[in-house]
Recover the amino acids of this structure.
């Protein structure tokens, strides 16, 4: 009798933990999207502490994960141990600043494991609800960035962090890159990566889903129009290139599975009609002109596609391992982040870090040996998820893991985890992909 009561109590406690963690993940998602709005518009005096607003949620999720043994993954074990060793080395032989070290350590000890907590507690229904929430939200988000695009930097919609200055970033032809509800344009671009993954999935599979999981048929063309507008409005090459990657994954799915070709063609027609309507109305003429000017100007400076993709990304990744002046255990965790460098009296460039080179940041902070292990964890996890997502596509015609893996590959291996918003979206896409793989066929 006591054993039965103990089992019932344990089951009840476990169910409560699942429910609480699901709510915490929802809160993590909502704060990720609206954190910038709080810091710019509603609570500008708290702009600096709000930088860490999602950290208590991550700590709670990881605490529950360790308590309920949801974090048995070798990826988590290796990352946590290596990050802790690096943090201790930082205090002994690095920059010796406890707060900067903790700021860097929290990325790997609290945020990275959230991916695996998500994989344990979220269901396919949870995942699709979050996806629909993100898609619905993309409509007012598009209206907001259009308003920011056309408004001067002195307008309320373009107010910067702490309520000061303008939030836009240099674009072209006098127009600035709009950040939406985010602190910076990179947050909006990553948000659109998630939107693109779910949108392309629903365009192909909406009619095949159960009614409760479907989007209204009239909504899909509206979402397509909003997404198309978001590309030139963002004045972001990253948004443009990530859209091309998503379309490649989408096309591979269609031509890999014969029964998806009809849905692919139908979705393609919807997209082409949306492009035709936009061009007919002339809605995006100015945006396209500005976006083209941005592409041409950046290509001249960086040497075209080779300079943009080859030297900036691939060269930057490989260059992380070529600096022989870095100490064996690195300069110390957190020093390559903007906030950490400011606590040390400078900025990341003052200490030789490049904000756009994530692998270089990790190696510079943790040294070649520990840094390579941490990069390897991110890289091998991503490749494993990509392989399993492809199996879901080919064996069960499940497109959701496959499309989410496209966004995951763009962020988890080399996304800029030193920036809190970017870190949040990397964790979100990694967790979403893991959930989609684990719930495939359900």
């Amino acid at each position: 009798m006591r054993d039965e009561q103990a089992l019932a109590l344990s089951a009840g406690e476990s169910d409560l933990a699942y429910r609480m963690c699901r709510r915490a993940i929802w809160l993590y998602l909502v704060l990720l999207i609206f954190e910038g709005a709080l810091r710019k518009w509603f609570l500008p005096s708290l702009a600096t502490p709000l930088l860490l607003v999602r950290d208590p949620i991550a700590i709670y999720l990881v605490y529950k994960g360790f308590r309920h043994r949801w974090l048995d993954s070798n990826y988590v074990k290796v990352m946590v141990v290596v990050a802790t060793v690096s943090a201790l080395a930082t205090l002994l032989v690095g920059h010796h600043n406890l707060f900067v070290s903790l700021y860097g350590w929290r990325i790997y000890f609290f945020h990275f494991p959230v991916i695996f907590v998500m994989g344990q507690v979220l269901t396919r229904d949870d995942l699709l609800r979050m996806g629909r929430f993100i898609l619905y939200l993309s409509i007012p988000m598009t209206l907001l960035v259009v308003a920011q695009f056309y408004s001067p930097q002195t307008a309320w919609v373009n107010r910067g962090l702490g309520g000061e200055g303008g939030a836009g970033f240099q674009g072209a032809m006098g127009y600035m890159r709009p950040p939406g509800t985010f602190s910076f344009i990179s947050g909006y671009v990553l948000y659109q990566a998630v939107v693109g993954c779910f949108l392309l999935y629903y365009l192909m599979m909406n009619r095949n889903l159960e009614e409760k999981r479907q989007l209204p048929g009239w909504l899909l063309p509206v979402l397509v129009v909003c997404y198309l507008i978001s590309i030139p409005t963002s004045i972001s090459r990253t948004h443009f290139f990530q859209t091309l990657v998503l379309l490649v994954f989408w096309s591979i799915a269609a031509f890999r599975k014969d029964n998806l070709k009809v849905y692919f063609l139908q979705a393609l027609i919807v997209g082409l009609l949306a492009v035709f309507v936009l061009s007919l109305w002339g809605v995006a003429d100015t945006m396209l002109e500005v976006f083209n000017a941005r592409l041409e100007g950046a290509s001249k400076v960086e040497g075209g596609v080779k300079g943009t993709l080859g030297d900036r990304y691939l060269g930057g990744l490989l260059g992380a391992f070529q600096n022989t002046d870095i100490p064996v255990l690195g300069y110390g965790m957190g020093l390559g982040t903007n906030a950490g460098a400011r606590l040390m009296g400078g900025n990341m460039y003052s200490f030789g870090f490049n904000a756009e080179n994530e692998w270089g940041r990790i190696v510079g902070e943790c040294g070649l040996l520990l840094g390579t292990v941490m990069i390897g964890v991110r890289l091998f996890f991503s490749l494993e998820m990509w392989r399993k997502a492809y199996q879901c596509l080919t064996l069960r015609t499940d497109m959701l893991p496959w499309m989410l893996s496209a966004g995951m590959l763009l962020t988890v291996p080399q996304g800029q985890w030193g920036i809190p918003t970017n870190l949040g979206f990397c964790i979100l896409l990694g967790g979403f992909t893991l959930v989609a793989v684990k719930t495939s066929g359900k």
Q: What stands out?
A: Strands lie at 169-172, 175-177. The chain has a mean pLDDT of 87. The two ends are 35 Å apart (CA to CA). DSSP finds 17 helices and two strands in the chain.
